[in-house]
Amino acid sequence: xxxxxxxxxxxxxxxxxxxxxxxxxxxxxxxxxxxxxxxxxxxxxxxxxxxxxxxxxxxxxxxxxxxxxxxxxxxxxxxxxxxxxxxxxxxxxxxxxxxxxxxxxxxxxxxxxxxxxxxxxxxxxxxxxxxxxxxxxxxxxxxxxxxxxxxxxxxxxxxxxxxxxxxxxxxxxxxxxxxxxxxxxxxxxxxxxxxxxxxxxxxxxxxxxxxxxxxxxxxxxxxxxxxxxxxxxxxxxxxxxxxxxxxxxxxxxxxxxxxxxxxxxxxxxxxxxxxxxxxxxxxxxxxxxxxxxxxxxxxxxxxxxxxxxxxxxxxxxxxxxxxxxxxxxxxxxxxxxxxxxxxxxxxxxxxxxxxxxxxxxxxxxxxxxxxxxxxxxxxxxx
Length: 382
Hints:
With 382 residues, the protein is of the alpha+beta class. The chain contains 10 helices and 17 strands. The chain has a 6-stranded mixed beta sheet.
């Protein structure tokens, strides 16, 4: 009808034509827009999938947006064909490497290890007192993490009698405070909160300034905030550091980390390992508990400190450590409380060192190792 201009319906036909054409054009435009958006989303999704390039596990996806991805051949170049081993563990092996003259630590995870995959997922956290992730490798069956290099190794090495270097009381408190700050971040600032599950002195690393950073999140678990107070999981961790309730019932919450940190704090104070071999093998918490009633703090503190510390500061630290290793989790402080009390211990000791002027004592030189006042005692040159 609209083709005949002589018919009386010509006016209405023009109106219909004027109405239909814009509608068709609008529908076509919207369809093209939707198709374009769908194609764009599909392309982004393919680009983000590790399997599209490497065929590896998608659990690594959370770190891809901000961290550099390395091929396995690049990892071999970085580590000089995996030449220098820094350490080994259940997750795999850590190698020394260099990227553009910057030292790094490359942690190659066991492909068959479920723990390894959990570790990859856990490395999304970022804090000054957590080891920094530089990049990752997700090349076929080769899975690894590239970290900043921690020049001074782990804390345990400096608590051993075999080391010629002795950390001052101030230095020990600074390291403990750094570590506590890292754990507080995991417990209260991550979403969802995280439990480390493998707190021990070898997992507290020290950079060139002796600033402490937590490492090895291979056993980390997220814990509920609203749905419950604990989670159930298979027993994992290191003997001597495991909380009693976790060892017996597999019940895990942030107080499990607090217990383990209490053991580390006792190691820092006494300069002894988690298990002490005297006439019998005894746990450090029991050993300290037997000495406390005597009231002789010097029998507990590392004798290599040669009594150069504020006694009140040490007593407060010992009491805090023993509270952390309470058998009942309810009696343990939170990591936030631990951090507050450690800061008080440190402030008390700093007041003593300031008053003494940090001068040379008994033939030993005191060297300030960092901007954070990490002090170390080194034997005098003979």
